[in-house]
Amino acid sequence: MDGFIKARTECSGLHIAPARFMRKFQRLKRLYTHLYVLGTWWPEYREAWLAPTRRDGRPDRVLDAGSGQGELALEFKRFGVPVEYYGVDLAVGDASWEFNVSAIADLQRLPFRASSFDKIVCNQTLEHVDEPERAVTELVRVLRPGGRLFLSVPFIWELHQEPFDRYRFSSHALKYLIEKNGLIIDLIRPMGGYFTVLRYLLTSQTSMSVRWWQPWRTLASLANHALRVFDMTVGGPIFYLLDQFDREPKITLGYFVHLRRPGDTLALPDDPYCCPLCVKDGEAPLARGPNAWICTQCAATFEVRFGVPLLTAQSAYQAVTDRVTSRAASF
């Protein structure tokens, strides 16, 4: 039989060609992953921001805007993509998280010089800032001409990182923010359609929010676990295939966006950091010490805590957790 297993009967018994079997198995595994995950178009989006943007062979300098627990850095490592990585976050969301950052910083007032990054990835973060329009303007400022900006934002999604869950975004709101900042749209992709949303609502434990008497809560929990098992076996592929009938989704989990800043230059400042208080007045450099970074222009002092600088303009900043660790710049 020539298929998943190549077998032949000889005097010594049944022999299996293991290499051929493993190739077939890996092919089936990739197909299943495609059907199970691609309903939200995540693999396509990930491949886009993993791809190098520089033509001179040097690693991209990447800003992870809203880095959280550092998942983006782990993805670059997992796929063997060398980058010069900077991750920033305010670390004010979920107290159970272990934030992994290069610096504590506010997306609305980034502590970086203009045109400092080849690539910026901002995943599920714009909904948490007070002024998304101001944050996008800052991201464009620190992105070099010709650089790439990748955004993912929610449209239908449960409340999370409370009380800092501020907004949801339609495709029209995204286009407004993008066009106002002079960016070129390469792609706006919905995170699935009606059936992907239905799958999310059926399998998300937190979306059920059962607050009634205990027996009902127990039954709901059991039903949810059964739905999750179904989803992890055949449900995911079925919902993905059904979603193909929703050609132009009006209801979706959110959007993946691929953007470019007009122009073309590869020149980047050697040190991207600058004072967030003086950034509008000449991008003053920072003198770095083990316990504090000090602005050479306005003499503002920024404490080093958890091993990372607190480069925020907030005078009374307080992280939600002490579990904040430093992320290396290059790997």
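The above is record 1. Record 2 follows with the same two-line structure.
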Amino acid sequence: MIETATTSATYDQIAADYAARWASAELLAPARSRFAARLAPGACVLDVGCGPGWDTLRLYGMGLRVSGLDRSRGMLAQAQQRGDLPLILADMRRLPVRDAALDGIWACASFLHIPKRAGLDVLCEFRRALRPGGVLYIGVKRGTSERWVEHTSGMRRFFAFYQEAEFDQLLVSAGFAICEGWIGDDTLGREPWINRLALQLDKEATMETEITREGLLMALDRERAALLELLPRFSDEQWHSAARADGWTVHDIIMHLADANYGLALIVLGEIPPPLKLDEASGWMQGLDEYNDQRRQKNAALPRDKAMSRTSNAFEHAKRAIESVDDLAAPGAYGPIHTKGQWLKRIVQHTRIHRRDVEQML
């Protein structure tokens, strides 16, 4: 995802200055106290987007068993200076933890770098990692739309801005119950902060995250029907001209979706190996963004009817995989870190994300 990759590269370069700027910032002390008050001493917490580790350190000082996670190597290098705290190089879109492993997630000023098209899926990933009743603190900027913002270094970061009602609905849709909310000022006089404390819903969230053959088939059929109804609404000109903020056109996205879903299905079936090595930090494929861009260039000249044919074929193979796999709880191609059911669920989630991308281009 170009937005998160570019933003992470920017943080790699500005990490030292960023760490120094926020070393003494204590505006978040009340938020940390509210968060910790809902957790038992020694609760297992993940600081998602920990940056230079200041919140990780302070949450640890409040008696929590906290680990820091960030995609930026530069930021983690700064966080290492906070002491002997567990630190993880990984992407918040794919948390390297088992289901219901965490008592709390602290996501301060990090989720706001996720494009809105992927926001719901990231929050669902947070919910998956939290135990039923687990606590989420999340802070985003209040505003409208999403855009690139230039840093004083000349490099860019991507920000998604939310209205309160919009953000609250997103949390609820992801299976959270909001228990506290407030607006905070920005120390530099910029957009104010939306702060939310939310609980992972118990029965409803557990039921929704359970992976069943019937549930996967129903979800796949629903996404397939919605996508195939949507695509004919684009003219041939729009097919190659309508684009996301990162320049990917409708054609690029549909070809990527077809290739990825076809590949995932065959990997689960054991008919082909994964094309990339496992990234131990993220728990998913190493160099996936670069690989996807290479495939995009290779598929650029394919005609529209070929793209549609590949899309239909990929759905058929995905359906075959869901129907054929004997044990959805069996380890996937990378071992027990992802079950076969979780690999198949990625096909449905992947389709949903890119269908939304395409919908926004009309």
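The domain at 2-208 is CATH 3.40.50.150 (Rossmann fold).
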